[in-house]
Inverse folding.
């Protein structure tokens, strides 16, 4: 099944520019054995670029896969760097939109960590909506969870801000989803809507192939995101890049007339097309460079581990699984311990595993954690060569 039309603007003017063969369809699902991990189905990714709105998406994405019945682990709150970031954006939202004592709603709340944090900071109430919420993970009496997909009826819940973090990149029908959200809000033009998602410009520029994996079918840039928000009936209040330019944040409110307010960081479709063209040249070089580096480590007999589980490690290792260099992937999330990486079959270990293992090299899956991880390693008496993506 090939998606011929753009999910964000319905255009048929789509150009395919990058393919990954046999990508595991899961990256954060919890898998308890090596056999099960290696048996995870694989499918191809074909990134398409829309010449009309600049949206980038996996043209081969299988929309029939149910990602929410199996368990998954995606909590990031075990890192100080991440918690500082999350607290920072929450405080900014509270200040900017006067949210003290108010009610926040989160679509795709996962285990509820963010809505819990935000609610603690507002001192008000919180509502989380996610079919994959696990009962009992949060014990805050001010929180209420709905274990279901967001639907039109949820628009009547009393929410002063509606947050949606790291969810839209998993949704294929982007325009359809935003129209659902907009229609659920009706005339509630005072509701603030806040989305946070990875942004494709950085992926194209670096190029960060590890940020392309099957579970992400949707790749927005500031420009393509802003265009679909305006198109579906929102007025954008703020648009910015954060977290080392890895994420784009958009704040908007429902508007009754078509908004034309634009922001400086919105690149044009032509700008994005240029980045896509540069990516197609640079990506081969980037993949070859890493392959040579990993081969050299293997040849020198160096024990190498990856630090940082979840999707980036799947995105990274999918390309080099044949080298059989890496045996372990470290993750600080205690719920991941003993699990295996989907499609890759390597086991997750806790950081303290490295005290005995004494790796010669550590490849960090997100450079933003380099300082924090290096410090942790050194405190354990581990001094490996460090590589960071
Ligand atoms: Zn489009």
């Amino acid at each position: 099944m090939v998606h011929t039309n753009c999910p964000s603007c319905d255009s048929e003017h789509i150009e395919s520019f990058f393919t990954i063969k046999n990508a595991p369809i899961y990256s954060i699902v919890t898998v308890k054995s090596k056999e099960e991990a290696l048996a995870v189905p694989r499918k191809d990714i074909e990134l398409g670029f829309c010449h009309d709105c600049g949206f980038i998406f996996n043209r081969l994405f299988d929309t029939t896969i149910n990602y929410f019945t199996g368990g998954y682990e995606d909590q990031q709150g075990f890192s100080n760097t991440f918690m500082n970031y999350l607290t920072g954006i929450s405080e900014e939202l509270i200040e900017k939109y006067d949210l003290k004592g108010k009610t926040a709603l989160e679509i795709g709340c996962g285990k509820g960590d963010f809505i819990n944090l935000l609610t603690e900071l507002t001192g008000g109430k919180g509502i989380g909506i996610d079919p994959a919420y696990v009962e009992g993970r949060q014990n805050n009496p001010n929180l209420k969870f709905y274990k279901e997909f967001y639907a039109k009826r949820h628009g009547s819940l009393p929410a002063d801000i509606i947050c949606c973090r790291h969810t839209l990149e998993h949704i294929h029908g982007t325009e359809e989803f935003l129209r659902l959200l907009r229609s659920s809000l009706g005339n509630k033009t005072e509701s603030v809507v806040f989305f946070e998602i990875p942004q494709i410009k950085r992926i194209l520029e670096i190029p960060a192939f590890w940020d392309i994996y099957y579970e992400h079918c949707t790749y927005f840039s500031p420009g393509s995101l802003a265009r679909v928000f305006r198109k579906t009936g929102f007025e954008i209040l703020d648009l910015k890049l954060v977290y080392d330019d890895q994420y784009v944040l958009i704040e908007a409110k429902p508007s009754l007339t078509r908004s034309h307010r634009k922001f400086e960081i919105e690149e044009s479709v032509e700008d994005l097309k240029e980045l896509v063209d540069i990516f197609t040249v640079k990506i081969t070089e980037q993949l070859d460079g890493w392959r040579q580096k990993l081969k050299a480590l293997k040849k020198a007999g160096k024990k190498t581990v990856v630090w940082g589980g979840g999707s980036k490690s799947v995105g990274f290792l999918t390309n080099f699984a044949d080298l059989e260099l890496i045996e372990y992937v470290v993750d600080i999330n205690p719920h991941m311990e003993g699990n295996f990486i989907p499609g890759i079959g390597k086991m997750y270990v806790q950081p303290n595993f490295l005290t005995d293992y004494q790796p010669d090299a550590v490849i960090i899956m997100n450079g933003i954690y380099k300082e924090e991880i290096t410090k942790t390693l050194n405190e354990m008496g581990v001094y490996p060569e460090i590589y960071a993506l």
Q: What stands out?
A: The chain has ten helices and 16 strands. Residues 6, 8-9, 11, 50, 52-53, 55 surround zinc ion (CB under 6 Å).
